[in-house]
Amino acid sequence: MQFAKRLEQIPPYLFAEIDRKRDEMVAKGVDIINMGVGDPDRPTPDHIVKAMHEGIDDPSTHNYPPYQGTQDYREAVAAWMERRFGVTGLNPATEVVSSIGSKEAIHNTFLAFVDPGDYTLISDPGYPVYRTSTIFAGGTPHSIPLLPERGFLPDLAAIPEEIARKAKLLWINYPNNPTGGLATLEFFAELVDYCKRFDILLCHDHAYSEMAYDGYKPPSVLQVPGAKDIAIEFHSLSKSYNMTGWRVGFVVGNAQGIKGLGQVKTNVDSGVFKAIQRAAIAGLSTTESELQAVMSVYQKRRDIIVKGLQSLGWQIQAPKATLYVWAPVPKGFTSAEFVTLLLEKCGIIVPPGNGYGAAGEGFFRIALTVPDDRMHEAIQRMTDAGIRYA
Ligand SMILES: *Cc1c(COP(=O)(O)O)cnc(C)c1O
């Protein structure tokens, strides 16, 4: 039996490969420290779990939900966008749609806007779905490199004009996975201008909007005046509220963008379980102190890893956001060689930077998803193995 041609064009999903390696090592009896996938190890906060229990007990949640999300959920989203970012006037009927987590909505946006012959502009390194979903849609991905010397922001002037003219979507993600890069509102404004000039739907993947430290609050691209003419923003409850397993998020912004995405979705899925939408509403009502209680756990881990790497010779700064530390591999190693060394010598799983795109070569990513004592243990194992950044 033959797979469709499109499956031959896409590499195996990065983390499916990493999980396979982990299982091999675990079968050999190795005590693995898995700092691979960005999957929070902490439980979902109690007030959210409680709303879910109540939702399940109410039989009115048991039938098909509305495709675009319940009225209550879309209103709660619009109210949250106003409270959190000062983005006023989002119309819950036309400018908000629920998603089964961002991954689903990201993929379906490519199906809605990309035809064969079209280009997409995708940040490199970046979330792997931008590339593979371009290919699923029959389009051509054009990588825009995120380099440390530019603070991991794309250089728009370096994009060839003939490609910009054929591009349908431009994807950005700030705070950025995997680099930890941050964008200012001024930079978002440049992107909005650029996308208006070439009539490109600007897609901001805001999966880490609440995962920030040291008092930093990431902005929304919709805070830029006129952004709603050209931009949509993808939000997810997954990372911010330790809810990766729940599969819930939302997309907000340009009505034509939301309409195209919604048209694909009505044909391929049937919405988010209404009890989960109620839990997500509870998530959006999380108080600042409850949120900080979740974030302080990651901030402490970040400091353990950054201090640990610094003690081994790495000259890195603590990232102000995301669930990751992005660090260069020592001289003389490729990304793949270095992560293999960490696995074989230290039992540590981390993804190679080039797993997120060619421009990620020379880096590796550490996810802050294991408890403090395991982070200390990881640094100790690296020290014992004589691994240093030199
Ligand atoms: C985790 C992640 C997602 C997907 O999140 P879900 O809502 O769980 O699907 C999307 N984009 C980026 C950049 C991520 O890191």
User: Which cofactor or ligand species appear?
Assistant: pyridoxal-5'-phosphate
Helix content, binned percent: 40-55%
**Secondary structural class:** alpha/beta
The CATH superfamily of the largest domain is identified as: Type I PLP-dependent aspartate aminotransferase-like (Major domain)
Beta-strand percentage range:
5-15%
What is the element string, with H for helices and E for strands?
HHEHHEHEHEHEHEEEHHHEHEEH
CATH class of the largest domain: Alpha Beta
Rg estimate, integer Å:
21 Å
In the CATH hierarchy, what is the architecture of the largest domain at level 2? 3-Layer(aba) Sandwich
Which geometry do the CA atoms define? globular
What's the tally of helices?
13
Q: What is the terminal-to-terminal distance?
A: 50 Å
| Total beta strand runs | 11
Tally of discrete structural domains: 2
Mean pLDDT: 96
Looking at the structure, the CATH topology of the largest domain is Aspartate Aminotransferase, domain 2
pLDDT below 50 for ≥5 consecutive residues: which ranges? Answer: none
Instruction: Name the strands of the widest sheet in spatial order.
Output: 2-8-7-6-5-3-4
**What's the story with the biggest beta sheet?**
7 strands, mixed
